Structure prediction request, 1240 residues.
Amino acid sequence: MSSSRTRLTVVPTQRILVGRGLALLAALLIVAVTLAAMGRSPITLFGLVMHSTVGSRFGLEDLALFMTPLMLTGAAVWVGIRVNLWNIGAEGQFYAGATAATAVGLFTGLPPALAIPAMIVAGMAAGMAWIFVPAVARAWLGVSEIVTTLLLNFVASLLVYYLATGPWADRVTGALASTERLHVILPDIWGVVHWGFPLAVFTVVVLGVLLARSRFGYETAIAGANPEAARYAGISVAPRVLAVLLLSGGLAGLAGMVEVAGTVHRLQGGIANNYGYLGIVVALLARGSCLSLIPAALLMAFILDTGIVLQTTQISASAVLAITGLLVLAIAVGDELAAYARVKKTS
Amino acid sequence: MDEHERSEGAPRPLNLAPGTPPVLTLSGICKYFPGVIANEDVSLDVFPGQIHALLGENGAGKSTLMNVVTGLYQPDGGEIIVDGYGVTFAAPDAAIAAGIGMVHQHFKLVSRFTVAENLHLGWSETPRRLSARQIEANARTLSEKFGLAIRPEAVVGTLSAGEQQRVEILRVLSRGARLLILDEPTAVLSPVEVGELFIALRRFRDGGGAVIIISHKLDEIMALTDRVSVLRHGRLVGTHLTASTTPALLVAEMIGRPVTLATSYPRGNEVPVTPSPLVLEEVTARDDGGIIRLEGVTLSLRAGEILGVAGVTGNGQPELAEVLTGLRAPDQGSVALDGVAVKQADPAVFARAGVGHVPEDRLRRALAPSLSVAENAVLREYAQAPIGGRFGFSIVRAREFAQLLADKVGVKLPGAMMPIRGLSGGNQQRLVLEREIRIASRVLVASYPSRGLDIGAIAAMREMLAKARDAGVAVVLMSEDLDEIFALSDRVAVLCAGRLMAVIDRCDADRDRIGALMSGRTQAEAA
Amino acid sequence: MSLKKPFFFGRRAALSGAGSFLLTSGVRAATPRFAPVREEDLLVAFGHTSPVTDGGWTHAHDMGIQALKRTYPKLKTLYVESIPYSADATRIFRQFVAEGAQMVISTSNYGDFIRDVADRAPAVAFMECDGHAVSGNLGWYYITHWYASYAIGVAAARLSKTGRLGYVASFPVPSVYAGANATLLGARSVNPEATMRVISINSWFDPQAATEAGSALVDSGCDFLCGIMDDPGYLRVAQDRGVWAAMWNTDMRQFGPDAYVSSVTLDFAKFYIEQVGARIRGDWKPEARFLTLGAGVDRDAWGQRVPEVVRVEADAVRARMLGGWSPFQGPLYDSEGKLRVAEGHVMNDMELYNWNWQLQGVSGLG
Prediction:
């Protein structure tokens, strides 16, 4: 017989991990050959990348700093995908959350003990507000959330540019491109790593537990998997669509708050740094499991950090982007190949 | 296995010229999926000029075997011999080239294309320059050649299931198929369409073609086929000449024990006299497209009684079931649940009041196919202890619940966390039925519950409905099978074109009268 | 100018008053000693805002780096180009430190993003172009381009027949205010009636918009175009329409030989050689440094059609400025007619660096 492979409907995690591992190795091999062809030593570069990421305290700090927003935007997209809703607007909600947190941090004059919780609440509320109209349109009118959330990203981005260069522009210190430094910031706990990191890990864990153990989690799972069956079972789909999208927006808003209050400390254009879009990749890497968002964010952080390291070796930013894309593609291919199993021949 | 052994009980057809090999010989075919034996050591011959039935329970391996024959799967062992020569089908097109064509249960047509366009899709003989007129003329020629009436210019999406099936068969035959495989072809057809299909198949057979037909319906097998092979648990149990076997023998072979469907289910107790749990008064309802599907239906259910709803498919049955279960609000008229008028369509209210519902399309309506058996099993009771409450939900308890449900109806679960789409249709149906019976303390609406079930499962399903009736539930049974309706019902309601033609006591109903009502004659005319 | 990004990413992010510099410099008291280091052991890292091939701002810095490497052939250097004005900038500067750079030079204004890194790496010397803060290990530098602009302005008034000058600007930021104001001030020194109209195109590099802006300015009666652009767009307009043009960054005369007057040219070679030399010797100090006329910034050699008499007059003014004379003295009025610089006050370079109001006679900057 010419072939004896079958496609598995349910792919065990172990197969996925092996598939991804092999795919990453293959991608790294391609990169190594290309680098060698460019006259660079892949081994030296590999050593440098390893040292600057997982091999030094400095590298680990940077990984944690990258992971912090990625875990949260990843969670934001993930809660949507879990029920078949695609929030492509995490970038916009990230901006909204960062903006609201900045407003609290700059203009309320609250003491830190009050200001930080207020910034968290404001950031999440702003993320929810930013997705509210698309969520309502999706829940009751059936308007595709993909388009509406995506379009609002551009609005949010331009709004932040306007605020950071116009009414909120810094007049006290030299930086024109951003607002004043926040009066209250998330304290550092380990080098440059701030409280946002444990907050993000905590959020992901709590989210995973809550969705698995709550009636809300069950009802939304049904509503997402088959809205007709949900209606049949007496579960109203529209309010749950709204609730899930608001949760998604709130998480992305929290990511924005954490980034502005913990890492950047000023609101400025481009602060979202594509974390909203990268959240889609993180969520897809995590597949069905919420806790997998953490290793998925770590992998993405590693790829991004590798990009930074490679740039300092005079490899151009566009080549780095190409390598990043190759790695993500390899993972997608690995997942797909992992679904094909060889069937034992018995005769 | 030599040929003699294989053909035991089913010798070569006498009219076949000596030395003519079978169109298809399977020799020791094996096919395994991880953890599952789909087929093992299956050997059979299919001769030209014969209609060959493949019979077996749900999950007996019939579809897998046919997917091996048509090149969709590669066998893990054994040999496929076509016209006396061993072959390997790397892909379906290789099987088609060898003259083997299959018509699947779910048609593989492009619904926005016309019939003629579908016939010419992916066909090597399609002219390079297409003109609508030319391919329609081609289609008409084909239609005449094979005796299958079609309308070449019609868009496939607007056709009935029977017409679509004819297009599909014509498509396969036009590719030069000498062996036609049909997977449960009559499941979607009206009785008239079944007759037309049989005429076409006989004509094809008489022209020297070979047919393999997969079916659960024994009467059809007896009426149509020349020989029949029975599969059980992936193995071939036997091949017989249809003329020299009986339905009872076939069932015994298929199930492993004799099973007969009872023709009546006598009640174990008196019908309690209680107020009607559900009353429809002059109900008119539209479908999602706004077309009126039910008109002026007045119906009062009785506790402890089975109401059979007879009618040709598509005469308002889905809408009636939806109104009865709160999924659809009537346009006009009123619905009273336990004497209280229901204003809005709210399935949750009906479910809480004890209305269970086994919908027609289980995978689409009653289940979330991608979710686990456990999550699907608790769809009706997830908010109650011990599975859940106001806020909580326990997947562990849900798993236990699913196991309980499966044990009760004799479904073997590989694991409660596997996606429910991995279960066979019959097992899905059993689980849904048990799930619904559990909550149906007042009313149970069962739409076509025997669809896709094998005879053993049908027998079990009917027992469950009768038991629910005995427990005082008002059961509504919709079925296309009049025997089923007569066997179970206390009263028979007949739907035609959205109108309730009559509600007759079982003792006053006979086949002719119901048939007349189904075709739209009034009760006076029918009587 | 070389910035291909909107100005909020840009190095010219400097609106604020001069006070901040003094404020922050006082905070960091103890200046650490930077021990001498051998040339072959020194790694200097450069962070650029655009590609080194941009033909403008970053290219000018890269020329300086090439000269630096010729002077110190054993010196190790590395650079990253196109660094976004975001937290990624922090990561890249941190990576410089992690890779062992003892000196980090940012050729654009990264503000907090470089400051955060500098604060955590006190043994590394940091320099930021167009920066505003000085700390124990962070200094900044900038070019006093306004003197070159003034000299070109003198020539502009002599060459213009209408007395109307046009300015193609990017954004209303201090570099643009200083450039436009200084040019008009130079022009008014010979023609008190001269005026300047500014059009902002919201980009440092957009040839099409620059061309359109140049055409619009000529249409409105301007017969001398200047500006602060990375491309020769409006020089081509001047060539086609038969008017004059002065440029920025580099010598662009090939794109409009008849219209070309001069350019504000940049040269960082001497400064980089001096800074790295100081770091090698161990006497590098964090400080705020202006690269002055003739020592980092100058007017380019005059264009082929600029009459001798004009060259001589403008160069004489340039010579006076080289000698220490400043034309930027009161009374100076803004476009609203308000007295901004009192009689007798001479604007120092810090004030000029932070110039954020338009001079009387300038319109369009708001």
